[in-house]
Write a structure and sequence with these properties.
Rossmann fold, binds S-adenosylmethionine
């Protein structure tokens, strides 16, 4: 951990026992622990949900459930979080973490490709009117697909609702000149440009960890 990250961690409220368990299990049971949201950003997500008090939250990219638990902990009474994950091998770990954190009743895990899950949710919300729109969407899945996720979620976010996208600085790669041309960097750069040009929203990039793009639908 670099000095800034250590300072931030030491001067922010620490994680709960259940989140510590998810973090440890992620290291033991997966090879991708670097994808974890982590204690500082997790606390920020928890406090943001507490401040915004959203009834319906959608997460794209569950991984082992760390950020989902952080957000679910602060949902208002009756609030619900749907979280989308493509890797079905993570399901047991995710569900165990939700139970340990006591949020199992407030969270629905939807396994499958997010683009297909979003098409299903769009149909249920916009055509069937079987579900309410979302107050907050947290985007944290495949960086190449951020522009696509933005297009798919926009109509199912309430007016006045929020979209929060993680990793929008992409380890500083979007600032490099020349910018790397790998598909992940291009995906994030296109997403940030798209949001900055979109007259339907106001937005600000917050340089927490790897950058959060905080977007409000007008
Ligand atoms: C950065 S991790 C998410 C971290 C998580 N939000 C957390 O805080 O621990 C990205 C996750 O998105 C998932 N993912 C990637 N592409 C996806 C897709 N097309 N549909 C759904 N999930 C996807 C990956 O399997 C991975 O678990």
């Amino acid at each position: 951990m670099d000095r800034l990250s250590r300072y931030l961690a030491e001067h922010s409220t620490g994680q709960t026992e259940a989140l510590g368990w998810i973090e440890r299990q992620t290291h033991v049971r997966t090879n991708h622990a670097r994808m974890l949201t982590g204690a500082v950003q997790g606390r920020f997500l928890k406090m943001l949900v507490g401040a915004l008090s959203p009834e319906r939250v959608l997460e794209i990219g569950t991984f082992t459930g760390y950020s989902a638990v952080c957000m679910a902990m602060s949902l208002p009474a009756g609030g619900h979080l749907d979280t989308l994950e493509i890797n079905d091998e993570l399901e047991d770990l995710i569900m165990e973490g939700f139970d340990r954190a006591g949020v199992g009743e407030k969270v629905s895990l939807i396994i499958g490709d997010a683009k297909e899950s979003l098409a299903m949710l769009r149909k249920e919300i916009l055509e069937d009117r079987a579900r309410p729109e979302y107050d907050l969407v947290y985007i944290d899945a495949n960086k190449r697909e951020y522009p696509e996720y933005y297009g798919l979620v926009f109509d199912i976010v309430k007016a006045g609702g929020y979209i929060l996208a993680d990793n929008v600085l992409w380890d500083g790669k979007v600032l490099e000149d020349p910018m790397p041309t790998d598909r992940q960097t291009l995906g994030i750069a296109e997403f940030n440009d798209m949001v900055a040009r979109d007259p339907r929203v106001e937005s600000v990039i917050i340089p927490v960890r790897d950058g959060l793009n905080f977007i409000r639908k007008l």
